[in-house]
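Input chain follows. Return structure tokens only.
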Amino acid sequence: MAKLGVNIDHVATLRQARREIDPNPVKAAKIAVRNGADSIVCHLREDRRHIQDDDVVRIRKVVRKPLNLEMAIDPQIIRIALKVRPDYAMFVPERREEVTTEGGLDVVKHFQRVKRAAKRLSDKGIKVSVFIDPKVSQVQRAKDAGARIVELHTGGYANARTVSSRARHLQQIKKAAVFARGLGLTVHAGHGLKYHNARAVARIKEIDELNIGHAIISEAVFSGLAAAVRRMKDIVA
């Protein structure tokens, strides 16, 4: 049974469209937790396009579930993480021009940067996670860099156009998950997962948690956030 992490970034995206106070991502986090979310995920981007610094501070204070803070390996963001002290800090690649995070962080290429940043956070008791493509080489270097959690990028699986391609991507995710668990890492997965495709990933026994945002917030427009979270929780549990 997989846990469900609910990403509330796109509640903040809607708020920032008008630079007003509604909808409130802190309220969204509370609703998600009341309706089955096992953790709250948010991404404090360098350009602050959705989640703002104060959102992270307030969520940390009022939500009694683990907070997973997605972040670039950026000195300013690291300083904020050290101050707020989320339960998990997940390093992700970040480009200003991208609509959303596309692809995993290349830990093989950026190993020393990841290792230095991971040590700073780990020394303060923050569990370090790295968002990576489902490749054994990336899993191994994430472990070597000091990560305790890897989140496997599921975009290839979610965007596959054929049954055979989808099956191949799913097998890659499973292979990486088995390898990661064998190294003693906790395994999460996410990106592009929706109500029709999340269950197959959730059934991989080595995966502890799925982190899902856009699909849940999109469904919430029509059915309400509470119902949208409960429906996804039923799928992944």
